[in-house]
Each structure stands twice: as C-alpha cells, then as structure tokens.
Design a protein that fits this description.
1462 residues, alpha/beta, disordered C terminus, 21 strands, two-stranded antiparallel ribbon
Length: 1462
C-alpha cells in the first residue's frame, strides 16, 4: 500500500506539469535491497559450517587418541588386538598422503606435467622425509606408550618452529605484535618443562601398595618417551616451513620456482612420506618393540576388534577430510573468525572436555566393592581412586564398552589417580593450557585475515595436504600469514581486488519495444549499482555500455534519403523512458555522431557512466551478430587498447556548451569520455572483460559480479556463462523451460566439473580480454566463410565457435548457476524450428572439430583430459543415435498401447520419420514445419498414451522392477531430486510432462528438419520484411528533383523554412523594424520554431538563428562577455608560453585521486557563448535530434530542473538550501515561461539562453543569502552546472580523425559488406547441399543399423537371444518367470543410466560450490547507503591504484579538430 501511495504522489507531481503524466515502469527498476532471507541464510550457513568444523575436528582428534590408546602396549587389550590397532593407526597416517599422491599423479598424467628443478625438489623431499619421520615416531611409537591426556597436550608444541621464524623474520605488521610469537615460544618451552615435572611428580608420588591393579612405572623409559616426543614434535614443526618464508622476502625465487611444479613435487613428497611411515612402522615393530609383529595376528583379531578398529579408522579418515573441507568453505564464505579460527582453536579444549566428561560419568556410575570401601575409609581423599583401582578388573565385563574402558584406564595413569592429593594433576593441566595458548598466540594472524569471495584454496593455505594426526594444528599453521595478491597492502591485510573494466556489448537485431526495455533496464540498474565512476566501489570495477544495432537505417522510397528505421526510433524512446523512470527527468547529455559505419548516439547515464548506441548501416558494414562482435572486439580491445598503450594528446574543443566540459586556463576540454580510457591504462588485458549480451537480455548486477568473480579468481578462465532462463508464453516456451533447466542442471554442470563448458551463450557471457586477443582466437574469428562446412560452423552458431577457439588455445570456460539472466525464447513452432535448425548442425560441427583436435587440445588445455574427450564422444554418439532411440521408443509405445508385436511395431514406427524425411527433401521449409507440427501433435497423443500404458503394465506385472519401469521411475526420481536441489527453479519440474510428450518432436522430427535443411544458412528468426520505407513529410511546400547538366539537386522547402527566409528578407530591408516585430511577436510564439530548425535542410536558417541570438543579448551581458574574452586571450597566451615547462600527465604515474570533476576549482562563466564549429549533418540526424529536443519542453524542464538540483546537492548536508533552490528556481522558470509557451512546446535557443541567465542569477542570490560557512563558491558552481545540464541540447559532434581512420581501415580489412557474385553463391549452394547429403546419409545409415539390429533381435525371439534378469515383486519375493531383455536395449539403457548418474553426481558437486559462492556474495554485496562525496579522500581504496580524475598540463593541449572520446 505504501508503494502505491508513493507512485501516486509522483504521478500527481507530473500531472501538474503536463496532460500526459503516464509512464512505463519496467520490472526491476526499483532499487535493489538486501534480501532478509539471504541474510538469514548466510548466518545460518556460517553457524552450520562452524559447527561442522568443530564436530568433525573433535571426532577426528578423539578417534586418533582412542586408536593410540588401544594400540599401546599397556592397554587392556591382548597383543593380537594391539597389533591390529597399530596397523590401522599406521593407515591413518598413510591415507592423506596416498590421496595427495593419487591427485597429484592424476594432474601430472592427464593435465600438465612440469619437470622439477632437481635442487629445489631435493630440498623439499629432504624436509618432507624429516617431517614424515617425526610424525611416524610421535604417533606410532611415543603416543601409544603415554596416557591419553599427555597425547592431547604434546602436539601443541608443533608450532615452535613457526614461532621462531616469525621472530627471526619480523613478519608482524606492527612492532608490538612480535609479542605474540615470543609468548608462543615461551609457552611451548614452559609446556615441555611442565611435562618433565609432571612425570617426575608421578614417579615420586607413586604408592606401590595401592597400585596392585596398575602396571609398574618404568621411570627410565617414561623419560625416554618424553624426550623422544619433544624431538619428534620439533621435526613435525618443519612441516609448515613455507608459510613464514612466503610471508617474508627470503628465498622467494625458490618458492616461485616451486609453485611452477607443485603437482610434480607432491608426487615425489607424498610417495616419500608413505615410504618413511611404512619404514618406521615395520622397523620399530619388527626390531625394537617388546612384542614383535606376529604376521598371523592380523587374521586372528576378534570380530569385535575388527569392527572397532575399522570403525575408528574410517571415522578418523572421513572426519579429518571433512574438517579440512569445511574449514576451506568457512574461509570462502567470509566466516573466517567464527566459522574457521574459533572452532579450529577450540578442537583441542573441546576434545579434552569431552574426555573428562566421559571419565567423570563412568566413575560416578561406579559402586566400589566392600574391600575398597574399607581401604579408602579414612585414608583416601581422591574420589576417582576407587574407580581406577578396580578398572582393570572390569576388562572382561561385557557391560563396559571397550572404548570407554580404555579411555578411563588411560586417564587413570595420570596424576589424577593420586590417592591423597589432586595438586600433581595441576602440572598436566597447566601444561595443556600452555600448549594451547602457544598455538593460539602463534597463529594470531588468522583472526585478522580478510579474504575475497570464493578465494582460491591455494591462496588460503600453504599446502594442499592436511595432517590427519594433528588436524587442528595443521589447519591453523597451514593458513597463510599473508595472502598474496596482485595488489596487496601488507599493512592492514584488507581485502583487495585489482580493478577491472567491463564493456557491456549488446547486439540488437529487430528487437521489439518490450525486449529493448529489458536490456536498457538492466544497464541502468548496473549504473545505479556501480554509482559514480569517480567513486570507488567495493567490487572494484568500471563499465561502459555499448549497444550495436544491426540494420538500423532505411531508405526513403521516393528520394532515396537515409533515415533511421522504426527499430532505432523505438530504442531512442526506450532510452528516454528508462532514464525518466530511474531519475524522473530526461537525459542530460546526448551526442549524435556520424561514423563510417553509420552513426553513434552517446548518453551519460544517471550516475555518470557511459552508454553508446552504435547504429550500423548494412550498406556500409556487414550485419549479423558475428560481425557485430568482431566490430566491438576490435574497437574495444584493439583500438582502445592501442590508445591506452599510446596515450593521445587532448585536442582543443570549440563547443563550450556541453555540461561535461571542464574549464582549464580559460579554455574548454571534454573529459568524461576519457575517464574510463585513462583508468584502463592501469588495467591489464587480463582484467579487461567483455560482457556479451543480446538485445532482449534481462539481468541484475549480482549476476554480472558473480561471473566477474570466476574470471578474477582463476587466471586460466577465458569465459564464464550464467544460467539462462527462457521467457514467454505458450507450449513451446514451456518445453524450452524444462529443456533449458535440464541442460543447465545436468549437462552444463557435468561439463564444468569434469572438463570445460563447450558453449558460453552470447546472450549472457563474460569473456576475458586477453583470452579473446590470444593467437588463433579473434584473428581467426574474423575469417569469412567460403566453404560449406565453414558456413555451418562459423555463422550458424558463432558463440559455440568462439568458445571452441578459446578451448583449443588452452582457455577454460566455466558455468555459474547463481548468475541468472532472462531472455526471450521462440514462442511459435516455426520460429523454434528455425532457431534449432541453426543450432543443431553448428553444435555438432564444433563438437566434432574439438574432438578432431582432441590430442592437441588436451596438451594445451589443462581443464580437458582424454577422459573428458571420451565423455564428449559418448554424448555425441548418444545424440547421433537419438532418432533411432526415439523411433524404438515409439515402437515400444505401439506395443504397450495397441498390443502390436515387436517387429511390426518397429516397422510402423519407422514409417513416419521416413515419410517426413522425404517431405523435407521435396517440400518447402514452411510446409515441412507445418507437417512437423501435425506429426508432433500425433506423437504427443501417442506418448501420453504410452506413459499411462507403462504405468498400467507395472500394475499388471505387480512390480516396477522392469527395464522400462525402472527407467521411468528412476528418471522421474532423479529429475525431482534435481529440481528440489534448485529451490528457486523447482516449479519447472511441472513442465517435465510437456517435455516428455514432445520428445519425438524435439529429438526425431527436429533432427531430420535441421539436417535436411542444413544448406539454408539464413538466420531464420526476427527476419524483417521491411524494405524501403516512406518517410512522412509534414508541412512541405516544395519538393522537387532538378537535373541540370551533371548536377542532380533535390530541393525541399517546408512551411517553417519559408517563414525563416521571409524573416531574413525583412531584416535585410529594415533591420530595426524586423527586430521590433520579432520582439513583439516573441511572447506569442508557440515554440514550434525548433521543429522547423531541426527539419530544415537550408543552412541559412542557422545564420538567422545566430543573428537573432546576438540581437537578443543584453548590453550588460555583452560587456561581461567582452571582459571574459579578454581574460581568455590573456590566459591562452600565458598557457602557451608555459606549455613547454609542463609534463605530459598521460605518460606519468601521478596519483589523481584528489581531483574531482564536479567540483573543479576553476571558475567557469556559463553565460559565455563562443562560436560553434558547424558539423555537417546527414538527413537522418535531424529526426533523431528532434526526439531528444523534447526534453526542452516547458513541462519537462520544470521536472528536470527540480530533480537535477536535488541530485546535484545530494549528500552535501544542505537539505534546506536544496529545497529552497528547488522552490525559487521553479518559480523563476514559471515566471520566464508561463503564458509564453505551452507545456509541450520546445524552447528555442534564445529562450534557453535567457532562461539560463535568469536561473543562474536566482541561484547566485539564494546561495549568497544563505551564508554558507564553507564551500559557498563550490555549491554555486555545482548548482550552475546542474542548471546547464538541464538546459543543454543534444549535440551533433564529429568523430576524431584518428578514430575515423580506424573505422575506415577496419571496415576495409574485415567488415566490408559481403557482395558475392552469382557464380560463387551457386557454388556455395551446391557445396552446402553436398554437405547436407553426406550428413543425412551418415545419420541415416547409423540410425538404420541400430533399428535393423533391434528388429532382427525382435524377429529372432527373446527365447533365442536375450538376457535374463530376475524378477521381484514389491514384497521382495522372486517371480517364477524372469525378465528377458535384448542385449542392445539393455546396453543402451545402462549406458544412458550411467550418463545420468555421472551428470547427477557432477550436479551435486556443483550445487555445493554454487551455494558457497552465493553465500560469499551475499556477505560482501554492496551496501546501498549513499556515499558522501565529501568523504572521498578518506575512502578505503581497494585494488590497484586507479586515477579517479585527470591532471592536464599545457603539453596535453593541442589545437585541432574536435576530439570526441569513445
């Protein structure tokens, strides 16, 4: 209700100014807000992940301690069981090393192998051998001989080496922080000292006559084990030696070299660690152990022992891996403190508390025997002593669990069992506290680390390998002390992103008004999300929008004059409408530029970002999507990239009335267009992104940022695509919704997980600039199709071909399921078939091209392996056999529904496809599609009947465990589970039935249609029948074509032009009378003169306009302008004299952050008018200019002025002044224009000049009377600039000579319109038909062989050749008659089932990481609280240093033609 009221209030305000206050409000134009459900989801996920880390870590650590206790020689188990437990304890150490060995070996064999440096590899292997020796000695030898509490405390000393290196290298960002590692070192030494004291106290307080049930203490061996434990922990502490060295500047060359062959090093080091662990195990237990290995003991262990040991082993191995994985997830979702650091630090204390609770619980339930009660009466003060005394006698009691018994027995070996005093136990407790505090203080930096979204694991942790024996210590010490990034600030460890520039490039081809509304709304939404380009953004990006309109012009039938067509007119209306919706005013700054390829419209979006609309004339440049892509890639990457690397001088401007002009040294220069180009100078090609869009794509900023994350995080990703949602109404859209869903849910995720996505659709894909500029990519993409196969591969599916080129060069293409985009899909059957007629052959051609170069691609592309190539071969084979499979499915439907025999059903099922194939060869495409539609309806009825027949057959059979039943039930369950895992899209499962009944149409008829019509290479969709259009002519007095000698002259005089000529003649005869007449007539002028000015082709009216403007000037203003011109000339002379002393700011690295365009310190006289450079205009310019001049109507000016003042003074803490300005300036505007012009009349330039002067004077008086303490001149300048922007008219500008030359050469080299002669076209047609015939023959033969084989198997009979499968009823009873299945059918079903299962598993994996990315984004999305521009200096700068403005010196100022940056 509140929203309705707000809209009503806005409408009331508009209605006061015009009789047409109604407007469109596109969906999604409202301001984005953080969704509460996602906030709750983020916090919930962070809590759950933190709990998972804590629980899995406690279970991992606890199960290891129990295993060491059970494997100890002093445990209550017999020797046979002890050896079995020791064996599995050794397996615990080997498992993570084995997993790392297999993973590294896989990468070296199937990805890329880099030969290691022998010296570096030798050093690393030596360190790893020492670490493996220390780990094996500590876990296999020492810990089984010590009690469980000591084993829990000793590993805390592993942090000692890291603490020493931190002190030595002084890695702390602040000096006082060195206290952390110093305290850690002192605490570790104190812990070791307390450990020795603890064992000494145990030996001295040992009371022999009270310990008959305990083992005798061996004083000598206890001290030996303590000493060995300390030595072993020192060796283990070498494990994370890289972390301090990476954070320092030491041996960086060696570490960088090690990163290049990290996988190869892991193969060697993991193998060495496995060998050393096995060697220690067998050497100790065969030579030094009191009870040598009995090889028969492994088979003689009791069943209970095997269950306990294997359970503890698998529990420890699984929980260790889970703890490590959940820890990584916590870091990626920005839950570093409470999801990672806190739970990992609490693993040790939580394990200790859990063990003590179990011990106390067991002792509380114990009732001492009368003997013990008599002994302890009056003598024993320790409440635990009776329980420990009789504990050994309970080992044969079945009521006591083995694990609880061993834990309690091990705790009883400590000082806790002292019969008299509890104080000796404090030694052990104090030792544990020291060790834990030492670990926490050594890893203090973890609490301050801030990470980016989906930070790469290799940037978070030093080693990929985790230590399962010390999972908590391993994770803490393995976390990098300094996250290395391209732009790093070591002082505060803040999250820093390298700045990037994104070019949004939308290609349009005959879009409707509503479709254009979607893409423009999306662009303006992104403009609002990004904000002012001079301000820094949390996501560190800048962007420009480019729209490329194909076929943008039409030719007038009678005169042959070129005008923009109705599509461009619609686009202009959409831009103005969307601008009005977002800002409640008209566009401020519009430029119209003629270009060699047609024309260009330049808009400044509400927040200051740029929008370029490129109008392509198909007579001058090649049309269609691929050539538009080549056009913008060469322009943005080639031309702009060249200018960035070779900065150009800023040439002088002669047009000072643009609001984007900045006055320097009394001269005026155009700057905003150069802002992004100057920023890009500091941005590499790797961080220059191209966002490919269609003209009807709808997306939110989040979708773009999520794709940017993929390219930022992984340098080898050349492109990334999002989840495409088809929109529209009708059965064809329903079919496509489920088809797109299944394609993204299963197929694209499988490609992403197992290799690389093969196609990144051009409607919503982000490309890396350096990837597109790579060899054999963009250059080959410009290849003109000359052969038949090239027409199919290059022009019918340009997006897939571009991705194929990227994959063949070694780049990876990724899919992000959380990046949603919406695009219109074909709603008519004909349009759908024509679209897929292009896509089908192109997909097959590009996939076969990739498979043909499979070996070379595998060598270059680390994401693609031979297994992935085999997977793609299998999918291609399945698609080729699709028509035969569908035909056999139809035959089965005939069997189920009509009870026809197997062989006859196959014959009947083959007839319709063969018939339709003949029709496709003989009939025209429209008739083919009509027949396909009829057959599709028939097939849909048959599939519906078949669906219910299959269900009925399962009911009759009494079981669904049949091949058909299993296939249907399992497929339905799989798709339903998949839909549930996509909660925002789960309703799409409803369209699954529509998809099912349309399978014959989509996989049989459509395949035949696309193959037989492969020779047709037209687009097939959005085709326009508009040829030359008649341009309406209003008020034309004379329209004649005159031919004289060699001259052809068109003379056109309108009524308005005639009036202007008459006025000029009167002025020439009697200047004074003419001026008086004009002055008298001016108040009554209906303000329609501008229409005449715009439409007239007679140049003389401009002279008249200038004369009238000069005659209207006030004498005071003339004097002021005269003074200003004198100052300008003096300033110009001084500027030229000092230009040699100034430096070129475009070639230095000056920090431009403190400069503010809007608040320029130079004074600018807004009343000064200088002569304009007259730019020749084509016929199409005037109608376009007329559309933008509508902003200068009385009604629009009032609204624009109010909104412009509010926007200008936003965040300036001048609310009262702002509202006063709005009221007074509105009254001034009303006084100047009321009763003089109508609400819909366009003001003349004279009226605009006078109005601007009046408004400036009013604004100056208001600002002066308010007596602003500081910055009054700045506020006045801002208000005047806002007034100027409100009154500025669209400008017709000239392209710079350099850019004009670029376009001429680009057109000549790559984009000249294709004009093939008739002979060549006939040759291409013959080649295409020949290719079509070959493809159809190949498809036909393969599918016929499959059908014939099935037919003969049916004819032979199931009794002769079949596979018998046991048949079970739902009550699990075996049926007497088994199921008989043909081998081919069973093989096809099994292969399809395996493919679905593989894709389903890939989907599960991808879902998890998509959730991580979404939660990570939601925790760092933009806060929509507006930023105060005055605080820009104090803002935190993220990423590399980017200039926020330009500093221009005299060397940069050259006189010349007008330079309009693009």
């Amino acid at each position: 209700m509140e929203e309705l009221k707000q809209r009503g209030q806005k409408r009331e305000g508009r209605h006061r100014d015009t009789w047409d206050p109604f407007q469109l409000n596109p969906i999604g134009a409202e301001k984005e807000k953080k969704q509460v459900c996602f906030r709750i989801l983020q916090n919930l996920v962070a809590v759950l992940v933190g709990l998972a880390v804590l629980v899995s870590g406690v279970v991992s650590k606890g199960s290891l301690l129990v295993l060491t206790t059970l494997a100890g020689p002093k445990s209550l188990r017999d020797e046979t069981n002890q050896q079995f437990y020791a064996l599995l304890l050794m397996c615990v150490l080997v498992t993570p090393n084995l997993l790392m060995f297999l993973k590294a070996l896989w990468k070296c064999v199937f990805k890329s192998y880099v030969a290691p440096n022998p010296r570096t590899l030798g050093i690393v292997c030596g360190i790893e051998a020492l670490v493996a020796l220390g780990t094996a000695v500590l876990v296999l030898i020492v810990m089984p001989n010590l009690d469980i509490l000591t084993n829990l405390c000793i590993p805390g000393g592993i942090c000692i080496f890291s603490a020493v290196l931190q002190i030595a290298f002084r890695l702390q960002s602040r000096r006082w922080m060195i206290l952390y590692p110093i305290c850690s070192l002192i605490l570790v030494v104190s812990g070791y000292f307390l450990l020795g004291i603890d064992y000494y106290v145990r030996e001295k307080t040992y009371i022999k006559h009270f310990a008959e049930n305990f083992e005798e203490l061996d004083d000598y061996m206890s001290y030996v084990y303590v000493g060995v434990a300390i030595f072993a922990s020192l060796l283990v502490s070498l494990n994370w030696w890289e972390n301090p060295f990476q954070a320092s500047t030491n041996i960086q060359e060696m570490l960088s070299e090690l990163d290049t062959f990290r996988d190869t090093a892991y193969v060697f080091t993991s193998f060495i660690r496995i060998v050393v662990t096995l060697a220690v195990y067998f050497l100790y237990f065969c030579v030094f152990a009191e009870n040598p290995i009995d090889w028969n003991a492994y088979t003689q262990a009791s069943k209970a022992t095997q269950e306990i040991a294997l359970g503890l082993f698998f529990l420890q191995a699984f929980c260790s891996a889970a703890c490590h994985w959940f820890g990584v997830v916590a870091c990626k979702i920005h839950a570093m403190k409470f999801g990672f650091a806190l739970p990992v630090s609490l693993i040790g204390p939580a394990t200790l508390i859990l063990g003590i609770i179990l011990f106390v619980t067991q002792s509380a339930q114990f009732n001492p025997s009368p003997e013990i009660a008599a002994i302890i009466k009056g003598n024993i003060t320790n409440d635990f002593w009776p329980f420990c005394y009789e504990l050994k006698s309970l080992k044969n009691v079945n009521t006591t669990p083995v694990v609880m018994l061993e834990i309690s027995y091990s705790i009883c070996k400590t000082s806790l069992n002292n019969p008299y005093d509890m104080w000796p136990f404090s030694m052990l407790a104090l030792e544990g506290v020291c060790m834990w505090l030492a670990l926490v203080s050594c890893t203090y930096y973890i609490w301050k680390i801030k990470v980016q979204r989906i930070e790469r694991t290799s940037l978070l942790f030093v080693r990929r390998l985790y230590e399962s024996a010390f999972i908590d210590i391993s994770m803490l010490l393995n976390t990098k002390m300094k996250v290395i990034r391209t732009a790093n600030r070591e002082s505060n460890n803040d999250v820093e992103l390298e700045n990037c520039v994104i070019y949004l490039c939308a290609t349009m081809w005959h879009e409707t008004y509503d479709e254009m509304l979607k893409i423009l709304t999306s662009m303006f939404r992104l403009d609002r999300y990004r904000g002012d380009p001079k301000e820094e953004h949390k996501d560190c990006f800048d962007f420009e929008c480019h729209i490329y309109v194909d076929d943008a012009f039409m030719i007038e039938k009678d005169s042959g004059t070129k005008f923009v067509n109705t599509y461009v007119e619609d686009l202009i209306h959409v831009v103005m409408e969307v601008y009005r919706v977002f800002t409640n005013k008209e566009p401020d700054e519009v430029s119209i530029i003629e270009t060699p390829y047609g024309g260009r419209l330049v808009f400044v979006m509400p927040e200051g970002n740029m929008l370029y609309v490129h109008l392509k004339d198909k007579q001058l440049i090649r049309n269609k999507k691929r050539w538009s892509q080549i056009m913008y890639l060469y322009y943005l990457l080639g031309w702009k990239g060249y200018n960035v690397k070779n900065p150009q001088k800023i040439t002088r401007q002669n047009n000072p009335c643009r609001a984007s002009l900045v006055s320097l040294d009394s001269e005026t220069y155009l700057l905003p267009g150069l802002v992004n180009d100057s920023k890009r100078r500091h941005i590499s090609d790797d961080n220059t992104y191209i966002m490919a869009l269609d003209g009807d794509t709808d997306f939110h900023p989040k979708a773009l940022i999520l794709l940017v994350d993929r390219l930022r995080m992984y340098d080898n990703v050349g492109a990334a695509c999002g989840r495409i949602h088809p929109t529209g109404m009708g059965p064809m859209v329903w079919y496509q919704k489920f088809e797109y869903a299944v394609g993204h849910w299963l197929q694209k995720t499988a490609e992403h997980v197992f290799g690389s996505v093969l196609c990144s659709p051009g409607c919503f894909s982000l490309f890396r600039g350096s990837a597109l500029m790579d060899d054999n990519v963009l250059k080959r993409y410009t290849t003109k199709a000359t052969r038949a196969s090239e027409y199919v591969q290059y022009d019918q599916g340009e997006d897939r071909w571009l991705c194929t080129l990227l994959l063949q060069q070694g780049w990876r293409v990724e899919y992000n399921a959380a990046s949603d985009a919406y695009t219109n899909s074909p709603q008519e059957f004909k349009e759908f078939y024509n679209q897929r007629r292009r896509w089908g052959p192109s997909t097959l051609a590009n996939t076969l091209d990739l498979l043909h170069s499979g070996k070379e691609t595998v060598k270059r592309n680390t994401s693609i392996s031979m297994l992935y190539i085999l997977y793609q071969i299998f999918t291609v084979a399945s698609s080729i056999l699709g028509p035969a499979s569908v035909t056999l499915m139809i035959a089965g439907a005939f069997q189920f529904v009509f009870g026809v025999s197997g062989t006859l059903s196959i014959v009947i099922a083959v007839i319709p496809p063969v018939f339709y194939m003949l029709i496709c060869f003989l009939a025209k495409p429209n008739l083919q599609i009509t027949i396909a539609a009829i057959l599709s309806v028939i097939y849909a009825f048959l599939m519906t009947a078949s669906f219910f027949a299959i269900i009925g057959d399962m009911v009759i059979q009494g079981t669904f465990i049949t091949p058909t039943g299993l296939f249907l039930v399992s497929g339905a369950i799989l798709y339903m589970v998949t839909a549930v895992l996509h909660p925002q899209e789960c309703t799409l499962i409803i369209y699954g039935l529509m998809y099912f009944i349309c399978i014959p149409s989509g996989y049989l008829l459509l395949t035949i249609y696309s193959l037989v019509n492969m020779h047709i290479v037209s687009w097939g969709t959005r085709e326009s029948n508009k040829g030359k259009e008649q341009k309406k002519q209003v008020g034309v007095v004379c329209n004649r074509d005159c031919r004289m000698c060699c001259w052809d002259v068109k003379i056109q005089v309108t009524q308005e032009t005639e009036n202007l000529i008459l006025q000029q003649m009167q002025q020439a005869v009697n200047p004074n009378a003419a001026a008086a007449t004009a002055a008298k007539a001016e108040p009554e002028e209906p303000a329609t003169l501008s229409a005449a000015e715009e439409h007239s082709s007679v140049e003389i009216h401009r002279h008249v306009q200038t004369q009238n403007l000069e005659n209207k000037k006030d004498q005071t203003k003339e004097d002021l302008n005269k003074d200003n011109r004198e100052k300008d000339s003096e300033s110009e002379r001084s500027s030229s004299s000092s230009s040699e002393k100034k430096t070129d700011t475009f070639n230095d690295d000056t920090d431009y952050e403190d400069t503010d365009y809007d608040d320029d310190d130079e004074d600018y006289d807004y009343n000064t008018v200088e002569p304009k450079e007259v730019v020749p205009e084509s016929a199409w310019v005037e109608p376009v200019k007329r559309e933008f001049l509508k902003k200068l109507t009385y009604a629009n000016l009032k609204r624009n002025l109010q909104e412009q003042i509010r926007y200008t003074l936003r965040n300036k803490n001048q609310e009262d002044l702002c509202e006063e300005l709005v009221l007074i300036l509105t009254d001034t505007l009303n006084d100047e224009l009321k009763d003089k012009v109508g609400p819909e009349d366009v003001l003349t330039e004279t009226q605009l000049e006078e109005l601007q002067y009046a408004l400036n004077e009013a604004a100056r008086r208001i600002v002066k009377t308010n007596r602003i303490e500081t910055g009054s001149q700045r506020v006045e300048r801002r208000v005047k600039r806002g007034i100027e922007r409100t009154l500025v008219a669209p400008q017709v500008e000239k392209l710079s000579e350099d850019e004009h030359d670029f376009w001429e050469k680009l057109l000549d080299r790559y984009l000249k319109p294709i004009q093939d002669d008739k002979a060549h076209l006939e040759e291409v047609t013959r080649e295409l038909k020949s290719l079509r015939n070959k493809a159809v023959f190949l498809y036909f033969i393969i599918n016929v062989l499959w059908v014939v084989a099935t037919f003969f198997l049916q004819a032979i009979g199931s009794d002769v050749l079949s596979i018998e499968i046991p048949k079970y009823y739902p009550n699990k009873t075996l049926a007497p008659d088994p199921l008989r299945v043909e081998p081919l059918s069973l093989m096809f079903l099994l292969s399809f089932a395996v493919l679905l299962i593989v894709q389903f598993l890939a989907m599960l994996y991808h879902r998890v990481y998509t959730l991580i990315h979404v939660v990570s984004y939601r925790s760092s999305e933009k806060n929509y609280k507006e930023k105060d521009e005055e605080d820009e200096e104090d803002a935190l700068i993220l990423g590399n240093v980017i200039p926020s403005s330009l500093v221009i010196t005299g060397d940069d100022l050259l006189n010349g033609d007008s330079f309009i940056p693009s």
